Amino acid sequence: MSKRQTLSIIGVWVMVFIFLGIPSIWHKIIAIVTGLIIIAIAYNTPPAPKKNIPDNFIENNKIE
User: Fold this and answer.
1) Total domains in the fold of the chain
2) Domain assignment present for 16
3) Is the whole model's pTM more than 0.85, yes or no?
4) Which of 6, 17, 34, 47 has the lowest tally of Cβ within 10 angstroms?
């Protein structure tokens, strides 16, 4: 499962988790654990590759 799919599933879990009606202390613990999981996944995700953008732009192959 990719990291994108994992984060999507955790997002759905957070949306459902709000409405479960569990006791306050468990609600806080589960929310903290879920947040730590999201942080760990985001931290381990490699950065997006940089696009190669030329320093100089020449339009119509003319240098003026």
Assistant:
1) 1
2) no
3) no
4) 47
